[in-house]
Amino acid sequence: MLHRQQIERINDRSFVVGIIGMGYVGLPLTRSFYDAGFKCVGFDVDERKIKMLNAGKSYIKHITSEFIAKARKEGRFRATSDFAELKKVDAIIICVPTPLTKMREPDMSYVQKTCEVAAKYLRKGHLVALESTTYPGTTRELMLPLLAAGGLKVERDFFLAFSPEREDPGRKTHTTTTIPKVVGGYGPKSLAVAKALYGAALETVVPVSSCEVAEAAKILENVYRCVNIALVNEMKVLFDRMNINVWEVIQAAATKPFGFQAFYPGPGLGGHCIPIDPFYLTWKAREYGMNTRFIELAGEINTDMPEYVVHKTAEALNTHKKPLNGSKVLVLGLAYKKDVDDLRESPSIEIIELLRERGAKVAYNDPFFKQTHKQREHDLRMKSTPLTPASVKGFDCVLIATDHSSYDYQWIVDHAQLVVDTRNATAGCKRVARKVVKA
Q1: What's the rounded mean pLDDT across residues 192-210?
Q2: pLDDT tens sequence across 304-325
Q3: Under 8 Å between Cβ of 116 and 69
Q4: Which of 209, 225, 250 is the last residue of a domain?
Q5: Which candidate, 398, 404, 391, places its Cα nearest to that of 418?
Q6: 378 has pLDDT over 80
């Protein structure tokens, strides 16, 4: 039978893996399949990425150019923007964005367009797997009709699965290969092929009974984090009014060996998952006549954090007898989390825009971004400001938005006129005096 033939080809490594989307999900996944002995083809619409990859160069910090160059030299990896090449691969793994619209509803255009293209080149034996986080029902309700429009039958002619990405840029304790992989198939044959493929490259595969279970599991993971981060963000605002250090409170609570897991406040949520994915579930829930008030409240709290940070910055400047309007503010850290080169949904972007709207003269520094690039909804058009004693002292306020390890926070405190710290980065600093305000 066809699915058994494909499993045999997976086992003997004659199965070719195609991955659509050479970003923070697709490129690490490519490395895992390459390391497991598979030939891989990367697809992307960004010609700049294609040229860099085929030249043996990487644009993601934790995927080295040495790896790309080695894979290219050995002939087991190439990148292309020609989607007709999908006919030559056996797996079509989709790793494209699933953002929100301005109305905070799912924007499924990337998944839909990708499936429409894939359908043109779909052939017998193909495994199509979606990794992009989405609402339960996407694989069955959106993808399947598009893929089956040409007459091929799922489970008989091709196989369909959902296996959510679990990337966490900057985390050194786990990699794409070691993080357990949830896999849900449209049917038993699809599950068998998907389980065999992922199991050949990743250490642990967690099969579930359907695509919907796999889709819901990913949403639950992200809702869990969103809600708990919202809780500590709300506690931060409350404890600030009570003149209680929320970071010390969390540190004390975390000594309990059961029933508590530490989450930490910040200037807002970032990354592609946590700020976005819970809203996919709230949108889908309306189809079933239910309002997910708990999730929506958490989203509201987290979304308000950049405004809170700007308010605290204005208050801090006011104590130095300076208005926010006209003040020079240096934002430290553009990435959404420490030690990564990832700007997706970074609260730093919104903080800079809010500061500008209120008349502040804003600059930034980030060791991973010499200059900003245009995003879907933002275009700051800024260059990173070098850190020197004179440059830091020349700003009315230094706002720590991302706590990169490369920053010397004592040095920053020593040379700054005022520091607004959203990450507790200055906790170990001495000679703080009245310079540091937590936000």
Answers
A1: 98
A2: 999 999 999 999 999 999 999 9
A3: no
A4: 209
A5: 398
A6: no
Known catalytic membership, residue 273: yes
Helices 65-74 and 47-54 cross at an angle (nearest 10°) of 70
Domain count, the chain: 2
User: Is residue 222 a part of any domain in this protein?
Assistant: no
User: Any idea what the CATH number is for the domain that residue 354 is in?
Assistant: 3.40.50.720
Tell me whether residue 67 is in a domain. yes
Instruction: Please list, in sequence order, all residues whose beta carbon lies within 8 angstroms of the beta carbon of residue 235, skipping any fewer than 6 positions away.
Output: 246, 249, 265
Residue 317, domain member (yes or no): yes
Q: How far is CA 94 from CA 271, 299, 309, 310, in A?
A: 19, 27, 37, 38
Residues 19 and 113 in one domain: yes
Please give the average per-residue pLDDT across 42-65, as a whole number: 95
Among 115, 273, 397, 429, the active-site one is 273
Q: Which residues contact 255 (CB under 8 A, 6 or more apart)?
A: none
- Cα 165 to the chain's mean position, in Å? 10
Half-sphere exposure of 14 (CA within 13 A, CB side): 6
Residue 186 identity (one-letter amino acid): Y
